[in-house]
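Work package 3, deliverable 3.1, input record:
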Amino acid sequence: MKYTFYPGCSQEGTALEYLHSTLAVLEALGVELEELEDWTCCGASVAAVMSDLLGAVMPARNLALAEQIADGRDLLTVCSACYTNFCRTVEAAADPKRLQTINQALEVEGLTYHGTIRPRHLMDVLANDIELEAIKEKVQRPLEGLTVAPYYGCQTVRPFSPFDDDQRPTSMIALLEALGATVHRHAREASCCGTSLVMTKQKVGLSMAGAVLEAALPADCIAVVCPMCHVNLDSYQDKVSGALGKPVRIPVLFLPQLMGLAFGLPEEKLGLRRLVTPARPVLEKIHNAHHATRDT
Amino acid sequence: MADVLDLTTLDRSLAQQVTPGRWEEMLSCIQCGTCSASCPAAHAMDVSPRRMWRMVNLGLVDEIMHSKTMWLCSLCYQCQVRCPRGIPLTETITRLKEMAMERGLVRSRASAAFYRSFAYVMRHYGRMREMEFMMRFILSSNPLGALGYIKLGPILFLRGKVKLELPTFGKGRLDRLFERVAELEGRK
């Protein structure tokens, strides 16, 4: 199993641990990745606001690069915003006139986009390309006794949802159970984390992040598959607590970090110390569960 | 807003402009309010999404530009996927934002600073540089806003979440591409 890999900007900065844990887990599962050389920003939520064409050209630049080395491979991305931008551009390229304009722009980069690459989200690959049995086989330290609240966010499943329901996604359930965890289902699994509103309209953004955190609180931790969601849910818990007038504290882990823990991968490879809300309670719970099993 | 609207002479150009290729679908809006009920930020908007679509179809561009509604959209796409008429609502909001940016009519200083700072970093380096983006955003929106990061800033730094990188000047990595796009869109 091999993919062309587009890391995305956040995975070089705030979400470096998402990159590292993804690479470690996919390697353990025997998945091969070839990183796209010379990739640039997908345009995030910004390029399309600056200009409609720029919003298609920024992702298209990367899709065109991926086509050059495709060899039938899909383009894997771990960020839901990158994923949505790539899917938007694939859709736009179906219109020959639009594709022509995109290529007139890409000319200055010496690139041509044909609309042949299929973007894939990490969530999709983990749930649908990799056999659940293969994941179960890798589990060395089952997450027994750990309750996990799945959180998909918006753009993982909306507006493009070829692999899951856009209102009530289920991709993570079997996976988390395969890791030995108990799944806490809640009403905000595909609600919005507040995205950049946390910066531009903080009160509104925090109320959105707060609603997700509150819904997940009965669990021991939250599992996420998007760096934007992660920043908002992990880093802003103090501010959310202030806004809600009560303490809201729950570790937020990237799904591959949880997988890595269950696979028994070295903790430094998973970047758990980088989380703003410490993962200690999660580690202690797993540790205690193992000691309890050993003692009985 | 005019007291009486003459429905026979309505200006459809706004709908055509912000819902390109699919403006007739926009005109099919039945004002059911599913969008407003689905929007996680509707409670904070001065004009509800449902009302704004009506304004688009009536061509009330000044009223829309004056409202803060579009700047509260977080692109969650909930209104778009739930719309019973299949109107690409979230995409339409992005076009409204583009129109406001182009006309210099952004009714939210923070949002304007956000988009401009991000676009600058993206164009200059080709990839995001979070630290420089944050600095630019804070300085151009509300320098006192930095106080809000007094506690979180050092934590992000200690955890290695943000790193110090010296800014570079001169030619940007994607200057040519951005210029070409502007040329093709007839903005230059």
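Chain B has a mean pLDDT of 92.
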